[in-house]
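Worked Example 4.2. Consider the chain below.
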Amino acid sequence: MNILFIGDIFGQPGRDALVDRLPTLIDERAVDFVIANGENVANGAGITSKLAARLLAGGVDVITTGNHVWRQREVFPFLDTSDQIVRPANMAAACPGRGLTVRAAHDGDPVAVIDLLGHLFMDSGLSPFRIVDTLVDEAGAMAETIVVDIHGEATSEKVAMGHYLDGRVTAVLGTHTHVQTSDARVLPKGTAYITDVGMTGPLESVIGVRTDIIIQRFITEMPVHFEVGDGAVRLNAVVIAATGGRATAIEAIEEIL
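Applying the procedure from the previous section yields the following structure tokens:
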């Protein structure tokens, strides 16, 4: 099985580029299952049900999210009713949505997707390490292939999660910092890992936002209104090859569109 995971999609430039490029990418890489982090598709802040539906219609099988998932209240009912979108499992149980879902790949085999929020610097309320064992056991009862999105700020926390789950899940993939790291590898017991998949969004930007706005904020230390950058788009992703629920290879992808 080949699994494609798309890094954080940022605003209209990111989502337009992804929808345009994804069908060809699926064919070129013989992809069986597509996961995309979509917490920033709505102008860089959250996701709406309409935009989620567009990504799903464009070829994405499951959308993961992160700390910005609540920025658009309109999406709350969609989170509750759709099994193609997940929010971090270590948020409060009363929150809309689910942190684990299982969907069939193109060949019919089930794929479990778990969404976690980092605890360090993220104010998640509950460390992902306190809930992940139960989630992995639950996922393993339904699917051989298990992919974990760990949406976190601290590289140490994401690296630790990769090693903690090595041999128990197919992949542990970091998101949130929007900068692709150079450490994609298969860990010793067969789990694919990368600290951050990166971003699918404006190339000439500060993690998606217009550069002049962010520079002004750093110089003046005053609040500013964020605006999505424009121009060329960087598409960051990884492709994982897996057999019997264990990864055999992981390849980082960077394309300028």
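Residues 11-28 form the longest helix (18 residues). Residues 2-256 form a domain with the Purple Acid Phosphatase; chain A, domain 2 fold (CATH 3.60.21.10). Compare this with Example 4.1 before moving on.
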